[in-house]
Write a structure and sequence with these properties.
glycogen phosphorylase activity; binds (1S)-1,5-anhydro-1-(3-chloro-2,5-dihydroxyphenyl)-D-glucitol; 32 helices; Alpha-1,4 glucan phosphorylase; pyridoxal phosphate binding; Rossmann fold; carbohydrate metabolism; 6-stranded parallel sheet; 10-stranded mixed sheet; alpha/beta
């Protein structure tokens, strides 16, 4: 597209939709017009892509996820279409700033954290690798809540992301389907002696899909993310004269449950899970029938992935559709189901592993419950004489009136994977060991990855430009090529360029911090970043304990030689997670105390940025010097912000947990700061039951002073929260071993303080992190899923642009 064509198109759209001339349009009209233009460009490729899949009979994967977290799409779409630079300069010609337009777009925040963002990185990578893959999820009217602080407390506001409409989606009413909930079911004996389920008194809702194009990186591919929204079917309108009942139905896709790594256990959540699973499975089977192939070929054309247990009802729902709606017998349907499905586990935290009470499942989806019972019965039967009775009992689906959703997903699929090496090993050796005994061949690892296009090319243009200059732009298509940067480890000019690029992003973040919080920070200070959901196991509190240590150190010795540091936090707490909210409150109060104490001479500052989301991550990550990955060993399945920060040249301070271990292996011991208990040591404490935080406290004056600050008025305004936290660390024996890891953490932090003073030394470490981040590209991750689990192949449609381009 030429500049003139872009301008002409924009003019036309502004006239058609808004009756405005280009000169008179504001950012909102310009954004929607540009969005429409981008959509028109990608629609042509979208149509070609799906027609191509259909005619070529390509095997496709459907990634079922109750969360997707794409963030903003305008610049990502422009980049992937290869027209970012052209559009930017064209707009500049007419005095319009692309950034201002891009900011009009609301974040699409239909996810909580790591799991949802991973799904969106995968969507980007699947399309960019030319793989035939689709997303399947829920179009929530309200995404993850907007976070504000009032008096240091988290306040949640609704996320009205659809208020001005969504340019990217296409409502496809013709592809809608019915989903049945509630009612009752009984088995009727037919004349031929066979049993047939009869369902009665069901509530029927309409699932309407909204499709969004997932644009591949300059390869002509556009895949589909299909999100379902609930509606009352026209045929049922008459039944809903009662407004309350109507509202109950409409509530189904109204809001995203705001819990990350914690289950909610509510009826509406269960209905949400079934709703998008049933709609997705039905639309896949409808598509398959168009191919006119025998049922036994289903697994040659279709793979369905279960992202965490939320979509685990794929197992009984696929069975139901194959048997009840298409007449297959149990054995045949089961064989197909296991071949088609695969499952990813994202956590070993007990409170996050879904278990649904039988009475709820019976009530919400009675036929599905019947099938679950039968799966359980057949599983137990088939294992008799093969495995010991106690193992069979521990692995069955139904236990003490609950349905274990992870068991359902494992038994009903051919592959179960963890998301980092240590996590997959823990699944095999401890958490799911029984299943590993039963199905050793089903277990595998797929370490998470990130879409380097968003997290480097879009988020960090200054660094991207330096990379182009040093190693050419081949890394943009092949993130592995970032490795070439290693040749510049001893090149002082290159190191200086990298340092300057970092400074640009730190200055931008400093301005943002000043605007949003009024806190003045120096871009020359160390920017130390911990950004992730607020959770006890992630140990944001330990970070605060260390900050308080520094606070007392400076108070005791105002002349102390500390490298100035800004501690930056971003974190939302689940609204029902009161302990996490208390931690937010105490960080905010400690921040206030520290930031307003002139005697500290700006040696340390603490900034808690509100409303951490994808867009804010894009501002913080490029500006980070230090990446805090300090979860208790064994608890963080993988982590993905660790990879994004590494890619942007932050140096990691970490426990040997999740993907931190693989990051350490990639960068080498000199380029990461490791501390703390190992996973084995943690498990030893569990076995021996000999951890005493009180004992550590009693023998440690420094920790006494820090912990007492929570209850003796040192930190103001935290009477209640301070006591709660103090008790969690002493009375309740410090569940996540903060006191045990504290000194080793402080030691690692002191080393950082020391090393940062040597600018060249530090920049070398930073360089090694950037250079070795290519191994964590989600492109590599999805290729491994494609080969090992989904058995799908890339299609090489047409590469529009030969060679590489940095557009
Ligand atoms: C989630 O975000 C994660 C796990 C889970 O069971 C539920 C949710 Cl909503 C996270 C893990 O905590 C994190 O370690 C991992 O990197 C991420 O999922 C993606 O795998």
């Amino acid at each position: 597209m030429t500049k003139e064509e872009i301008k002409k198109e924009l003019r036309q759209r502004l006239r058609d939709t808004y009756a405005l001339e280009l000169e008179d349009a504001g950012p909102v009209e310009l954004f929607y017009s540009l969005g429409g233009l981008v959509k028109a460009v990608s629609n042509e490729k979208w149509q070609k892509t799906w027609k191509n899949y259909l005619t070529e009979g390509q095997k496709q994967v459907y990634y079922f996820s109750i969360e997707f977290l794409p963030g903003k799409l305008l610049k990502s779409n422009l980049l992937n279409l290869g027209i970012l630079d052209e559009v930017r300069t064209t707009l500049a010609d007419i005095n319009v700033d692309l950034e201002e337009l891009a900011n009009v777009e609301k974040d699409m925040a239909l996810g909580n954290g790591g799991l949802g963002r991973l799904a969106s990185c995968f969507m980007d990578s699947i399309a960019s690798c030319g793989l035939p893959g689709n997303g399947n999820g829920i179009r929530y009217d309200y995404g993850l809540f907007k976070q504000q602080f009032m008096d240091g407390y988290q306040v949640e506001l609704p996320d009205e992301w659809l208020k001005r409409g969504n340019v990217w989606e296409i409502r496809r009413e013709s592809k809608a389907c019915d989903v049945h909930l509630f009612g009752n079911v009984y088995m009727k004996r037919l004349a031929n002696g066979k049993l047939e389920p009869v369902e009665e008194n069901q509530t029927t809702v309409r699932a309407v899909p909204y499709d969004t194009g997932m644009i591949g990186y300059q390869n002509g591919i556009v895949n589909t993310m299909r999100l379902w929204s609930v509606e009352i079917p026209v045929s049922e309108e008459a039944k809903y004269h009662n407004l309350g009942e109507r509202r109950t139905i409409e509530d189904l896709t109204a809001v995203l449950y705001p819990d990350d790594s914690q289950e909610s256990g509510r009826l509406v959540r269960l209905a949400q899970e079934y709703f998008f699973v049933s709609a997705g499975i039905q639309s896949i089977i409808r598509y398959y029938k168009k191919l006119n192939l025998p049922w036994h070929s289903l697994s040659e054309k279709i793979a369905i992935h279960i992202n965490d247990t939320h979509p685990a009802m794929c197992v009984p729902e696929l069975m139901r559709v194959l048997m009840d709606e298409n007449g297959l017998n149990w054995e045949f349907a089961w064989d197909i189901t296991v071949k088609v499905l695969s499952y990813t586990n994202h956590t070993i935290m007990a409170e996050a592993l879904e278990k649904w009470p039988v009475y709820l499942m019976k009530r919400v989806v009675p036929r599905i419950y019947q099938i679950i019972e039968e799966i359980d019965r057949r599983y137990v039967m088939s294992m008799q004489g093969i495995h010991p009775q106690d193992l069979i009992q521990r692995t069955r689906l139904l236990q003490n009136d609950q349905i274990y959703m992870a068991h359902l997903a494992i038994i009903g699929s051919h592959s179960t994977n963890g998301v980092a090496k240590i996590h997959s090993d823990l699944l095999k050796t401890i958490v799911l060991h029984d299943f590993y005994v039963v199905y050793p061949e089903r277990f595998n690892n797929k370490t998470n990855g990130i879409a380097e296009r968003r997290w480097m090319q879009l988020a960090n243009e200054p660094l991207s430009d330096v990379m182009d200059e040093l190693i050419t732009d081949s890394w943009r298509k092949a993130p592995q090529n970032l490795k070439l940067l290693m040749n510049y480890q001893n090149d002082e000019i290159a190191l200086k360029k990298l340092r300057e690029a970092k400074l640009v992003k730190k200055e931008e973040l400093a301005s943002y911090i000043l605007e949003t919080t009024g806190i003045q920070v120096s871009p020359n200070a160390i920017f130390d970043v911990q950004i992730k959901r607020l959770h006890a196991y992630k140990r944001q509190l330990m970070n605060l304990l260390h900050i308080l240590k520094l606070y007392f150190d400076i108070k005791d010795n105002p002349e102390i030689d500390l490298t100035p540091r800004v501690f930056i936090f971003g974190a939302k707490a689940a609204p029902s997670y009161s302990y996490a909210k208390s931690i937010i409150k105490v960080i905010n109060e400690a921040a206030d105390m520290i930031n307003n104490d002139a005697s500290l001479q700006d040696k340390i500052k603490v900034v808690f940025l509100p409303n951490y989301n994808v867009s804010l991550a894009e501002k913080i990550i490029p500006a980070a010097d230090v990446s805090e990955q300090i979860s208790l060993a064994s608890k963080e399945a993988s982590g993905t912000s660790n990879m994004k920060l590494m890619l942007n040249g932050a140096v990691t301070i970490a426990t040997l947990d999740g993907a931190n271990i693989e990051i350490k292996d990639a960068v080498g011991d000199d380029n990461i700061y490791i501390f703390g208990l190992t996973e084995k040591e943690v498990y030893n404490y569990y076995e021996n039951q000999d951890y005493s935080s009180q004992k550590i406290y009693d023998e440690d004056e420094e920790l006494q002073r820090i912990l007492d600050a929570f209850i003796d008025g040192t930190i103001p305004n935290i009477e209640f929260e301070g006591q709660e936290i103090y008790d969690s660390l002493l009375k309740f024996n410090d569940e996540y071993f903060l006191l045990r890891d504290f000194h080793d953490y402080a030691r690692a932090q002191e080393q950082i303080d020391h090393d940062y003073k040597d600018a060249v030394l530090w920049q070398k470490k930073s360089l090694a992190n950037i250079a070795n981040a290519g191994g964590f590209s989600a492109d590599e991750t999805v290729k491994a899923y494609a080969e090992d689990i989904w058995q799908i192949e890339p299609i090489f449609a047409h590469t529009e642009k030969e060679g590489t381009t940095n557009g």
